Amino acid sequence: MTTTQNQATTLELSTIQPIAAHERHGRARDLFTIWFGSNIMLLTVVTGALAVTVFKLPFFAAVLALVLGNLVGGVFMALHSAQGPQLGVPQMVQTRGQFGSFGSLLVVALVVIMYLGFFASNLVLGGQALHARFEVIGTNTGILLVGAISVIATVFGYRLIHGYTRVMSWLSGAVLLISFVWLVFVHGLPADLLQRNENNIPGFLGALSIAALWQLAYAPYVSDYSRYMPQGTGARTAFWSSYWGCCLGSILPMLLGVLVGLSVGEGDVIAGLIEMTGGFSAIMVAVFSIGIAATNSMNLYCGTLSAITVGQTLLPSWSAQAGWRAVIALALFSGSLAIALLGQDNFMANYTNFILLLLYVLVPWSAINLVDYYLVAHGEYDVLSFFRRDGGIYGTFNWTAVNCYILGILVQVPFMSTALYTGAAAQAMNGADISWVVGLGVVSPVYWLFSRKRQRALKTARA
């Protein structure tokens, strides 16, 4: 066994504690592979297919919307990633610096729920894909199999997850390339593929939004995977490595989803992908299902860290180690498993509504965090205050952040457009959803304006 393999299988002892300088390790390229390798999976393919199956876009409009959405959303994702080497703590712990120790609990609790939802979605898709290609494997059995691999990686922690996605970058990348070649040159695409569906603005904005959300959804945990990086890694290097890893790893499988979605029309996307890849489908499903497990281990790992963050806020003396990570991971897995088993029959409808609702609660948090880090605090925080019950110099509640967060959700309401609710502004625009743009545009300047006085007080307290 090589040194790298030995390191990957080393049990991570820390959970949310600050990472000391002597424990820092890794290179910027590790940030590229973790985001590239973790995004090449079936759920990304299905998300790309939404542009043509749900939002009814033709090929070129779908490609443009997905590429733009990923490139724009990736900026926010990568800006969060660049915080990890500087502070050495998980993203949700660092959120206490903006919201206060107790003020951050609402956001952290929402993040736990969010990753339970993504975990459950991946379980369903992995189980259904395995059953569709290998009939001897029942859907529920497939769900359990994908879940078990995810739990094991979560228990071992940071190094194994990085090692896992490093391998998947090469393996999933090769399988994705072969799948494209097979679809185009072996199976062939419909002659009228470019004529299917019609351009429509609501659909374009909807597809752009889900692509941007795909990137934004990583924001609450992206720095969890850069917090072990040496502080000298540099914000710019961490930014670009994360940005291109995540954008390329997302865009390419989404484009595969567009091709399959247009080919099958109203049919099942995964079943269509299996049929179109013919004899190669067994390898494709197996590798992409393993890829789902890799991503799910990341979801479960960060959901576990967020749950520990909630517990440590209420019990500051609690210093959870690897054993607690295993226990909490199993508890969260059980909850996600129940959601997956109960919601698998209406997967596509549930998943579409879920990711759109996420957009509304993630956008204001991301705006507050990034404005505070880059424009208000300039990356300078008292990390020890993060672990105090009273919040240290940040206090228990920062009402400016809490009120801006609530404002960020409220200003989006008229612009929301989902199957559950459509706001008046969205109706006036024929169902176009620009809520996330409005949320970012309103919250960012308002928070910056009202935070300057607090920042002067924090500088005095630190001095």
TrEMBL record:
It is a multi-pass membrane protein. One of its GO terms (molecular function) is transmembrane transporter activity. It is found in: Membrane. The keyword Transport applies. InterPro entries: Pur-cyt_permease (IPR001248), Pur-cyt_permease_Fcy2/21/22 (IPR026030). The keyword Transmembrane helix applies. It holds the Pfam family Transp_cyt_pur. Keywords: Membrane, Transmembrane, Transmembrane helix, Transport. Its main location: membrane. One of its GO terms (cellular component) is plasma membrane. The chain crosses the membrane at residues 32-52, 59-79, 99-125, 137-161, 167-189, 201-221, 241-262, 269-292, 322-342, 354-376, 397-422, 434-450. Coiled coil: none annotated. Signal peptide: none annotated. Belongs to the purine-cytosine permease (2.A.39) family. This is Cytosine permease.
